[in-house]
Amino acid sequence: MQYERRFNLLNSKFKELFIPTLLAAIAGNFAILADALIISAFLGPMNLSVIQSIEPLAQFVNMIYWIIGFGGTILSTSAKANFKDENANYIFTISIISITILSLLIVALGLLFPDSFLDILCNSNQLKPLVFEYFKFYLLAIPFICYFIVLAYFIKTDIRSIAI
Hints:
By secondary structure, this protein is mostly helical. It is built from five helices and no strands. Helix content is 91%, strand content 0%. The protein is elongated.
């Protein structure tokens, strides 16, 4: 009986978390599409090329905060289903610390070796100065983006567990 209760709780939590996460991913992709349309219409195709050059780095960063944020919330929800609140808090702490360290590491590498990143992201010598300008600003935003998105995953989990 206890196993069935835990399974039902975990299964319902997964469904509760999956739909908003899926919708957030769809919204993120629509935002990229809207940015592309607006930028190409108002700023021209050259500036669209600059922003699209950073997209592989943006997707890599997205992958990292998805793994830590979504994976951490699943582990945390599992711990809460087993009535191990201390484990859930530990997972939250580890997730926040690891996303902070990883995002700061990406920023540090980007600031120390910008030419290497630019060689990977952009092969046009004409675009490299523009990509570098955008790259600097994007790098500075990475820790904030990662921290807040991972925090948002865990807030969803905590709010839903308080309601139960």
